[in-house]
Write a structure and sequence with these properties.
heterodimer; A: 8 helices; elongated; B: 258 residues; alpha/beta; Rossmann fold
Chain lengths: 255, 258
């Protein structure tokens, strides 16, 4: 029983690897589906922005409010903007945004493609002379890869604004002082790796959502399972990528 | 035991024309379950051939192999002189302009309007079609199925019969020489089923198409079939006209018409 589960696990890893390999092959083939790509960018970027913005704002606010008492205890209240901004930009905003996107976008892609698979719409596309992999997978994976860094950048800014408001609930920090402390603290080595890793987050959310949708089985039940497992696997892989990114930045002395 | 009934109409076609689809020794299995075993079949120009068989007998697999959606394990499938299993994807795309496929589930794109559903194959195959030409083709395809007023509707707003007609219009828009129908009347009430069957006959007359129809709806078979092929145990078990098969003494054949 255990060996079967292990076999299924490695079998799935092999399938995902092949699916990813096919993405790169199809990516460089001619006729890029620009219209569908832009439609997906709009859907993934614009339609997820509201949720990401609200979450980022609350994140910034809550982290600041919760960090304040500890810093006050050590007499380091003045460090609040510095500490919160580094935490938000390096780790919290990218990871939380990626997890929200894994939930909203990953499940959406998994369910949409899964539903198309079980209702033979993907076959119909094939019969219509459209490469469904290029039309559905390449466009969606490219859109998530390029839009999630944009969402994370916006989430960084909004969460810092939330942090500014959080800092002013119990204390008084002027607008100029807060932002000058933030910009004095944040350097390229904070920003660059944190944005770079979000491209990988976006890629993995897109590829897992598409893989699960494309391999959906067992009718409507299978569609639900595809959406669910797309979220679970992509969320897990977001943490794995984050761990790897931290190790790499540590080795490169960027921490 | 294999029953083979050769009708006069088949003999006439065999003498006068080359088959548009010719299948030889087709073998297809899923793991250890063989669904098509040495299947042989020919479709002649202007014919409507119904493939009859039980659920799970491999009828849909057969037409998916013909259109290149599935690869056979062994055997040859020649469609309009193209050996389908050996075609590259671009060659397959070119062939698919000439071969229409009506899916059992209609497979209309949920997120697109009727117009966009019909535009989709046009834009893929006929890159230089102008907007006015596209509109003309869309209206022509919709008027063939009697649904010109649905052009801006979403598939979810249509009834089952209307969806089937729109799917048929999408199949027709590229003016195919061959149409493959996968259970065209399944899930429809008898009246709508009859309308769809009559529509299939009208299409055959108007566009001079040759068709393979997968069905187990005897009412549909009565209306559309020039010839019937019985797919039993993975093989072409019997073939002939409706009357010939109805009068067969073979119990496996008879059970379909009782």
């Amino acid at each position: 029983m255990q060996s079967n589960a292990l076999y299924a696990f490695f079998d799935e890893i092999g399938d995902i690897t092949r699916f990813t390999g096919k993405f790169f092959i199809e990516l460089f083939k001619s006729r890029f589906e620009l219209k569908e790509f832009l439609r997906q960018c709009f859907y993934i970027g614009n339609k997820s922005f509201g949720l990401v913005a609200i979450t980022a704002f609350i994140m910034g606010l809550v982290i600041t409010i919760q960090s304040r008492p500890t810093l006050v205890e050590f007499g380091a209240e003045a460090w609040l903007p510095k500490m919160v901004s580094v935490s938000l930009i390096r780790e919290i905003a990218p990871v939380i945004t990626a997890l929200i996107c894994a939930g909203k976008i990953g499940s959406g892609i998994g369910a949409e493609l899964g539903s198309m698979k079980v209702t033979e719409q993907i076959d119909a596309m094939d019969v219509s002379g459209t490469n469904p992999y290029k039309y559905l997978v390449v466009t969606r994976v490219m859109a998530t890869t390029l839009m999630i860094p944009v969402l994370v950048t916006l989430a960084d800014a909004i969460s810092l604004y939330g942090a500014y408001l959080g800092a002013n609930i119990r204390g008084i920090v002027s607008w100029d002082l807060f932002w000058s402390q933030v910009f004095d603290t944040i350097v390229y080595s904070d920003l660059f790796p944190s944005i770079l890793k979000t491209y990988f987050f976006g890629f993995i959310i897109g590829i897992i959502g598409c893989y699960k949708g494309f391999n959906s089985k067992k009718g409507t039940e299978g569609v639900g399972q595809s959406a669910n497992s797309a979220v679970v696997i992509s969320s897990l892989l977001v943490f794995v990528i984050d761990l790897l990114a931290v190790q790499i930045t540590d080795v490169l002395n960027l921490n | 035991m294999t029953t083979s009934i050769t009708t006069n109409s088949i003999a006439l076609n065999k003498n006068s024309a080359k088959p548009v689809i010719e299948i030889k020794n087709l073998y297809k299995s899923f793991s250890s379950n063989a669904v098509l075993i040495d299947f042989n079949f020919s479709l002649y120009p202007g014919e409507n051939v119904v493939v009859l068989g039980k659920s799970g007998s491999g009828k849909s697999v057969l037409i998916k192999c013909i259109i290149g959606l599935m690869k056979p394990d062994k055997g040859s499938i020649s469609v309009l002189d193209n050996e389908v299993p050996q075609l590259t994807s671009s060659q397959l795309d070119k062939l698919r302009v000439k071969v229409g496929f009506l899916f059992q589930s209609n497979a209309l794109y949920d997120s697109m309007t009727v117009r966009e559903n019909l535009e989709f194959p046009l834009r893929r195959h006929w890159f230089k079609t102008s907007q006015s030409e596209e509109d003309t083709l869309i209206i022509e395809a919709l008027s063939n199925v009697g649904l010109t007023n649905t052009v801006d509707m979403m598939p979810a707003e249509l009834s089952g019969g209307m969806r089937k007609r729109i799917a048929l219009a999408r199949t027709l828009i590229l003016k195919p020489e061959i149409i493959l129908y996968d259970e065209p009347t399944t899930g429809l009430d008898p009246i709508t089923g009859k309308e769809i069957s009559n529509l299939m006959n009208d299409i055959k007359k108007k566009y001079k198409t040759s068709s393979i129809i997968i069905s187990h709806d005897i009412n549909c078979v009565k209306i559309v079939a020039d010839r019937i092929v019985m797919l039993i145990d993975g093989k072409c078990y019997a073939e002939g006209t409706l009357d010939e098969l109805k009068n067969s003494i073979d119990s496996k054949v008879k059970q379909f018409f009782e």
